[in-house]
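Shipment paperwork, digital attachment
Item: protein structure file
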Amino acid sequence: MAQAAAKIVLIGSGRMGRIRARAIFANPRLQLEGIVDPNIEQAKPLSELYRTHHFETLSEAISSSSSSSSLDGIVISTPTPSHESLITEAAKNNISSIFVEKPVDETADKVSSLFQLCNDQKVKLCCGYQRRFDSSYQSLYHQINSGAIGTPLTASIFFGDHPVPSREFLLQGGGNIITDCSAHDVDFIRWALKDEVVSVYAVGTSSDDELREKNIIDNATMLLTFSRGTNVTLSLSRGANYGYDQRCEVFGTKGIVSVKNMAENATELANEDGLHRPKWMHSFPQRFAAAFEQEMDAFADTLLSETHWPIEEKDCIAVQRICDAALLSCETSRVIHLDDMP
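Attachment content:
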């Protein structure tokens, strides 16, 4: 007999919500029971597209499911400040598995508290860091850990966001570039090196006078020093106007391994004017489309097969502490030692 699909509700119908809805709907082991979002104008068309219910609140979705059959899990794709209340409500209603976009919450203490709550309720809290599910980054991980490049000495990571955010978005705050853009790479390099960061130094710059006057940083560089001596430089920019630029290079005693950018297609034209190649992929929904699908498939494993979720509480807390340290370093212009962080 075929295994029944896990029944889940998606919370959020914004950009990440639309990505998750598509991946959930396409997975035969997951059944999308509804989409939760008080923004009816945005959520209703999405729920109709995927032939499911629309709910304005999680409470409404839980109540509806309990009258027929209980939910197996939820996927939270909403802004970070909403995570605490949604995770708490789901855990207290004994929803067995919760998937949440990174970060789990805004501080390491809050992250720890939410994991403790879920542990007490015997609920699995699964945080998404998509690079662990991307085939290129997985290959880089295996090359490092097979000894192919010997002892890792340095790494250089570049995160160039595209499309460039609107001026209005940046001037209204737009999220801090360090907390918004570094977490996936910080998680990945910790995982790949199997080592912990001991100190962080970060600097930020503004690309023009208007942003500088508002103290808005749209470019930043982080230097992470690991306990075994590897130094990692992570450069971040909001302004990759040529396409979504995501690169990672690790140099070791026996060689070097890197993840290159991916183009929109594999066509290359050569003529008397030179070589002509396509642009890099437009943005993260295109570059990490397969990784998002793999992430939801791994969540299905967790729901249906009791498979251990690969990203643990300690990983989420470590990434948050590193980002917190980078923010503090940027504000104080000094090296921050992780042992000195709360």
